[in-house]
UniProtKB/TrEMBL annotation:
This is Uncharacterized protein. It comes from Rotaria magnacalcarata.
């Protein structure tokens, strides 16, 4: 898919404003080069020569520039020659091969959050502060699921836990330590 950068963001992602660069439908996936080579050659030609379009019976010349290549994860895997999107070490950003966590540590995130929750249950102001922080965050449209009240974290879905642990836990912990210094050890 492709779109014009000059169109504002919410309208740009509308299906009517996107250009289909290529589509493959079949039982067997071909090598990415069979589709991408033609697209890349055409884009190179457009970059060097530009494109002429008639608008109101007047020819306008536009220059073409590529800023970004993206797609859903299976498409990026195919284009970048990575392991299948659900395979081992399939991330395009990771340079380190991870290791599987042994079974006794499998739920360590839930354990840490439950211990944190047990401490905060004794201090309702802390729980209220976390919930206010969660409610006050302006989430990007790319977040699929936003964490609910921290008091119900045992019922959170995995995506809520991941969002909380990766993006929110540290800032909330800092805010808690500033507002409730007696509950945190000094370092």
């Amino acid at each position: 898919m492709s779109f014009l950068v000059e169109i504002p963001t919410p309208i740009r992602e509308d299906l009517n404003n996107m250009l289909l660069l290529g589509l493959w439908h079949g039982r067997v996936t071909p090598p990415s080069s069979s589709l991408l080579d033609k697209i890349v050659d055409n884009i190179k030609l457009l970059i060097t020569t530009g494109i002429n379009i008639y608008i109101n019976n007047k020819m306008m010349h536009f220059m073409v520039n590529v800023q970004l290549h993206t797609g859903d994860f299976p498409a990026r895997v195919k284009c970048n020659h990575l392991v299948n999107h659900n395979g081992f070490h399939a991330c395009s950003r990771c340079l380190i091969v991870g290791s599987r966590c042994p079974q006794p540590c499998a739920n360590h995130t839930l354990y840490l959050l439950s211990e944190w929750h047990n401490v905060l249950k004794q201090n309702p102001t802390g729980l209220l502060l976390i919930n206010e922080c969660l409610d006050g965050i302006k989430y990007s449209h790319t977040y699929n699921r936003r964490p609910r009240d921290f008091s119900t974290f045992l019922k959170w879905k995995a995506s809520e836990l991941r969002t909380f642990m990766l993006y929110m836990a540290l800032p909330i912990l800092v805010k808690l330590s500033l507002n409730m210094p007696d509950c945190f050890p000094t370092l």
